[in-house]
UniProtKB/TrEMBL annotation, chain A:
<feature type="coiled-coil region">
    <location>
        <begin position="33"/>
        <end position="60"/>
    </location>
</feature>
<dbReference type="Pfam" id="PF11011">
    <property type="entry name" value="DUF2849"/>
</dbReference>
<dbReference type="InterPro" id="IPR021270">
    <property type="entry name" value="DUF2849"/>
</dbReference>
<feature type="region of interest" description="Disordered">
    <location>
        <begin position="70"/>
        <end position="102"/>
    </location>
</feature>
<keyword id="KW-0175">Coiled coil</keyword>
<protein>
    <recommendedName>
        <fullName>Sulfite reductase</fullName>
    </recommendedName>
</protein>
């Protein structure tokens, strides 16, 4: 029996900067997971992935990954995506720090 | 130190020019990622979790003061102010931007450094004993051999697209400080009964998903035959190695499947064809290379300042006791600078620290530095009277940690904090173990104990050969850590044995603590090391300490 579909977001790395980005509902890319489009339907997820892959010359390594709805938008369900979202945990010098400097 | 000739310089310039054009074509959209990826990997550029990563080779771990300063410049100008020294005598920059990488490579080329063959299915950066040329126990400096192999393998037409990567290490004494037996091929300089120098060749070592200890393929290959012999081995593997499954492609599997005798036979056959094609140019080159590795003129003079500091300054004494190694020249020592301050990321050095180490090398160390596979930096030649001044300067820059060979001198791969292949974190586990044993003030009492941590089955952190090895896995979406005991990375190399079920992230440090406390309880004398105790008593007492509940069930 196929596993039930779980909600997804689309993520990738920026071609020039290399940093983690997410696909939004208006077909653009954001640095914030909370602003990503949460896709609740399996067929829709495949269509959105095909749409996102049109940007393959500007972004690298596009894939669908699990996420869940949170109070402020999508949140990770797996620790790998949690680290990708925040930056290295050994000390603050990734995205966490960039956010603090805004 | 090896000096680049015009050919090397021109070759690097050409390679960098090509890659700059490739990057431009990727950015303007003429190349897709599928087309670009193999090109960037050939130039050491990876994409990790949060950013690109540039891996720069430090051939046989040797750097000049100027090269170290250039590494600092790259860290400052194009990265976040630090670099990460790895177990393969490379430095990795974790935050370069794609458009800056060609400039970084040009800056490296100014000091004859590069990122070629740090990735891809080629012959990788040749590693060597980090005490080469300085160690009291070596037969001769193994670096000329490493340089010869580097020149022969760089851009070698037969070996650019092999079934898998191929890693070579060289060393020159009874003691193995280069983990020879975990390499695809290793060269150990030996002397035969007639007093001639030659080479013992080991093959089939490797870690990763199927760890194997290297085996002796040939006990004595003469100087004239070395390169043709190595070429024959690589060529036999390139032909017979499996290409159907990348997990079975390394030479360790070929040796395992065909057997050592068969590999030896095939190598001999191949050698008969290859040997005549080496007309002696390799030997002339070897003599030329050797001249570049001549030792500096070591200073003479007494050691009174050293003796005085050793007697009066306990902090200096503790450092001298752990971080110095016997040198072959009178009144000299090898200094290992720990870049493993308790709680820091093992192997990271800031740009400022790199400059301090470069200055020290220039002022006191004949301009030479080394990077060890244990992720530390070495001043290979230091007159003992300069040690107090060096120590004082290191202290000012957080570089005077007295922990070489101790429990906080941990090898840890980047793990889930950086690496896209990781299944769990490894750096924070290392940080917490180091901090915990520093708090307990037990480190010096425990003595020689190597912990090695990898964040996935690829084993970049050498966990299989750690006295205590830790492997981070993903168990149903949660980090889980397997422990192995009894691994050994030296001439008595061994793969560690699993203790049993793994531990959650917040249980792994207490688990290591239980292992160490058990050792302190059961060692026969204070001199008996952890590994010796483990070899004497086996797994049972450690298992009992780790899994008390299941022990009761059995009883
Ligand atoms: C972060 C980017 C890295 C990636 C993507 C990576 C990838 C890999 C892979 C795929 C293997 C397994 C090869 C095989 O079994 O055929 C491997 C092995 C290895 N890597 Fe890494 N690695 C990375 C970083 C490092 C670092 C930082 C070090 C040094 C600390 C390192 C040292 C090694 C070593 C020593 C092996 C030994 C296993 C062997 O080849 O037998 N790697 N790496
Ligand atoms: S062992 Fe795994 S997690 Fe660690 S650096 Fe290698 S590939 Fe990455």
């Amino acid at each position: 029996m196929p596993r039930p579909f779980t909600p997804k977001i689309i993520t990738a790395n920026d071609l020039l900067e290399g940093d983690v980005i997410y696909y939004t509902a208006d077909n653009s890319w954001t640095r914030e997971m909370s602003q990503a489009e949460l896709i609740e339907d399996e067929a829709e997820a495949q269509l959105r992935l095909i749409e996102a892959e049109k940007d393959a010359l500007r972004v690298v390594g596009i894939y669908l990954t699990d996420a869940k709805a949170g109070a402020n938008g999508p949140e990770p369900t797996h620790f790998r995506e949690d680290f990708r979202r925040t930056g290295p945990s050994n000390y603050r010098h990734g995205k966490q720090e960039a956010a603090a400097n805004v | 130190m090896y000096k680049y000739n015009d050919f090397d310089t021109a070759f690097l310039e050409e390679r960098n020019r090509q890659f700059r054009a490739q990057v431009e074509r990727r950015i303007d959209g003429s190349l897709t990622e599928d087309e670009f990826k193999p090109l960037r990997l050939m130039n050491g550029l990876y994409l990790q979790l949060h950013a690109y990563m540039l891996r720069v080779a430090i051939p046989y771990g040797t750097l000049s003061a100027n090269q170290m300063r250039q590494l600092a410049l790259l860290a400052e100008k194009w990265d976040k102010g630090y670099g990460h020294f790895t177990t393969r005598q490379n430095i990795q920059y974790n935050w370069p931007k794609l458009k800056d990488v060609p400039d970084m490579l040009d800056a490296l080329a100014e000091v004859n450094l590069h990122a070629i063959q740090t990735s891809g299915n080629t012959i990788r950066n040749v590693t060597a004993d980090h005490f080469a040329g300085a160690a009291a126990d070596e037969i001769e400096d193994p670096r000329p051999i490493a340089e010869l192999i580097r020149q022969w393998s760089t851009d070698h037409p037969e070996f650019q697209f092999m079934g898998r990567k191929f890693k070579i290490a060289v060393s020159a004494g009874e003691k193995d400080r280069a983990v020879l037996k975990a390499h695809d091929l290793a060269v150990r300089i030996v002397r035969n009964d007639a007093g001639e120098t030659g080479y013992q060749i080991l093959v089939g070592g490797g870690l990763g998903r199927t760890p194997m200890i290297g085996k002796v393929l040939n006990d004595f290959v003469s100087q004239d035959d070395l390169l043709p012999y190595i070429e024959s081995v690589v060529s036999v593997w390139n032909q017979h190695g499996r290409r159907d499954n990348k997990y079975k492609a390394r030479i360790k599997i070929t040796v395992h499947e065909l057997g050592l005798d068969k590999i030896r036979e095939l190598t001999e056959e191949r050698f008969a064809l290859v040997r005549p094609t080496f007309g002696g140019a390799d030997l002339a080159l070897f003599e030329e290379i050797k001249a570049h590795f001549a030792n500096p003129a070591f200073r003479s003079g007494g050691t009174d300042a050293y003796e005085a500091a050793y007697q009066t300054d306990p902090v200096f004494r503790a450092w001298a006791d752990t971080n110095l190694t016997a040198h072959k020249a009178a009144n000299h020592s090898i200094v290992t600078i720990s870049i493993k301050a308790h709680g820091q990321t093992p192997g990271d050095a800031t740009a400022e620290q790199m400059r301090v180490m470069a200055d020290l090398a220039e002022e006191y160390g004949y301009g030479e530095l080394r990077i060890s596979h244990e992720q530390n930096v070495i001043l290979p030649h230091v007159h003992q009277n300069d040690l107090p001044a060096i120590h004082a300067r290191l202290k000012e820059h957080g570089l005077a940690t007295a922990n070489i060979g101790l429990i906080s001198d941990i090898i840890a791969c980047p793990g889930m904090d950086y690496c896209a292949l990781a299944t769990a974190r490894s750096i924070p586990v290392a940080q917490e173990i180091a901090t915990r044993f520093d708090d307990l003030k037990l480190e010096h009492d425990v003595g020689h104990l190597q912990i090695k941590i990898s964040g996935c089955i690829n084993a970049c952190g050498h966990h299989h050969v750690g006295h205590i090895g830790i492997l981070g896995l993903d168990r149903a979406g949660v980090e889980n850590y397997q422990i192995t005991l009894g691994g050994d990375a030296t001439e008595t190399a061994a793969i560690g044995t699993r203790t049993g079920p793994g531990f959650a992230y917040d249980e792994i440090v207490p688990a290591v603590e239980r292992i160490v406390l058990t050792y302190l309880d059961i060692r026969e004398t204070e001199e008996e090391t952890f590994l010796e105790t483990y070899r004497r008593v086996g797994m049972d007492p450690f298992k009992a300490a780790l899994y008390p509940a299941s022990e009761k069930k059995v009883a």
